[in-house]
């Protein structure tokens, strides 16, 4: 991959949506005990295993998540990992942003959204992603990065 001092084709954006800043503080039966900081550390390590950098962002605001997707495109990010939280099930704006930028995206859900309430079964963001992982806990982020790396041709480092 091309070398650059700027964020570039070596960087993946990891976007977490509303309430995911609360990870590890409540609802451990659904979301486990790991914190968002743990998720971000895991993502940095998983990305590094493929020679990639993880730029991790979290927002409780839909428009800010749209801005992050645009930024990923502007900075020529190699891909996006997105857990848009509840916005996954409601946000045509996030769907449209992912579709518009054409940066390869993987959707992650910590819980198995299909084993939960019916309002979680549909995801607008999943429709704009090339793959979805749901129900692996925070390990889903590592699996998503591995799948994204395969998709973009990033090879595992020794
Ligand atoms: O399973 C997931 O990753 C979800 O995206 C999490 C969202 C939920 O709305 C989706 O249906 C599935 C909720 C994130 C809330 O995160 C919390 C974490 C700890 C405590 C409270 C909320």
**Helicity, in percent?**
25-40%
Q: From the alpha carbons, calculate the radius of gyration and give it in angstroms.
A: 15 Å
Structural class: alpha/beta
Small ligands present: ligand CA2
- How many helices does DSSP assign? 6
Morphology call: globular
Query: What is the element string, with H for helices and E for strands?
Result: EHHEHEHEHEH
Strand order in the largest sheet: 2-1-3-4-5
Tell me, rounded to a whole number, the average pLDDT. 95
Report the end-to-end length measured between terminal Cα atoms.
16 Å
Relative strand content: 15-25%
Number of strands: 5
The main sheet comes to: 5 strands, parallel
User: Quaternary status of these chains?
Assistant: single chain
What ranges have pLDDT less than 50 throughout 5 or more consecutive residues?
Answer: 1-5
Can you put this structure into words, describing what you see?
- The chain is α/β, with parallel strands linked by helices and 158 residues long.
- The protein is 37% helix and 16% strand.
- The chain is globular, with a radius of gyration of 15 Å.
- The two termini are 16 Å apart.
- Ligand CA2 binds at residues 19-20, 22-23, 26-27, 31, 83, 85-86, 88, 109-111, 113, 120.
Short description:
This protein has 158 residues and is an alpha/beta fold.
Task: Furnish the topology, listing elements before pairings.
Layout: E1 11-16, H1 28-31, H2 36-48, E2 53-58, H3 62-74, E3 79-83, H4 92-101, E4 105-109, H5 124-127, E5 131-134, H6 139-152
Parallel strand pairs: 1-2, 1-3, 3-4, 4-5
Helix pairs in contact: 2-6, 3-4
Bound molecules: ligand CA2.
